[in-house]
Predict the 3D structure of the following.
Amino acid sequence: MNTTQKQDIAWINSLKGLCILLVVLYHVVLPGYAETVQQLTAGFLPAKIWLAFNNYLSPLRMPAFFFVSGLLASNGIINRPWKQVFTSRVTNLFYLYFLWGIIQWLLIRGVSNEVMGEQLSQNMNAAWAATPLESVKLMLLAMSSSWYLYALGLFFVFAKLFRRQRVALMTVAVLLNYAAVTKIIPGWGPESIAQYLIFFLLGTFYSSILLRWSEGHRRNLLPWAGLLILSILHAMLGIPHNLFLCAIAILISIAACRVLNRYFTLSWLNWLGRNTLQIYVLHRIFIEFFGLSAILFAERHQLFANKAFSLLWATGFPIVMVALCAGCSVGVWTLLNRGIGKILFIYPRLLRVKTEA
């Protein structure tokens, strides 16, 4: 493999690694950290910066994640028969989604109710459901912390079924995106699936075009200008979650990851990008445990009344929690991903195939 090919793979892993860290940060900041801001006696500026940072990154975080996922799935969708890809690309994703949905419910409900006596949020989520049946119902509606896996499975099936009707497919995806951002679709789970389908399809069918646009050539000035104008018009109309701004954010992130890999060694970030699954399915459990523990401890000992503590909390809590939860996720995966424990991270039939190979 030549240097150019290695760089092409590296930027994909870098972007995936960046996205998973931003996902963890999002869950750290909202709702736990955000709800403590009103209790602070100092550090309001860094707290507001963290909240704004989390909010302004929304055009990049999940759109880029789904774009890269679509890019990586494109060969299976366009060129390979169902028999070769259904188990690995569909069954495996649904298996992991429901398996970890159940595990998250058991652990988070156990932590929240049995140990803490509280839960981190009152939002509608399968992990906080009152009963197993309610949790499964919410998982079917994609209202689970691991909804990304569910969406990937659905998107793969949808894209492969209608791969020959790309224009119609993209039209439907755009309409679903606007139906989601204008709140026509009820429930944050169905809304998220409808909103992000377009980015998966862009990665699947049009990644070569976007990759070309991300290069620093004069010929790309026209598409960039077009996207910028459409983004401004979109903002002037007051429609939230600007589709064209998301496209610009994806292009910038691709270009940035390419440049960074050209000049720096990002082995740790690229490793994270190759191992997003374990962080994705595990981090929510650790956020619930560590985040809720820290918040309850600070409240019970009235630590937020101390200005030094408030400043330290406002500045460092998100960074510490992201590092702690991502690190613990990788650590637990390292311990569990051996022997029978491997079935927690891959569909058993695929594990047998790998063992036979």
About this structure: Residues 111 and 174 are 40 Å apart (CA to CA). The first helix runs from residue 3 to 36.
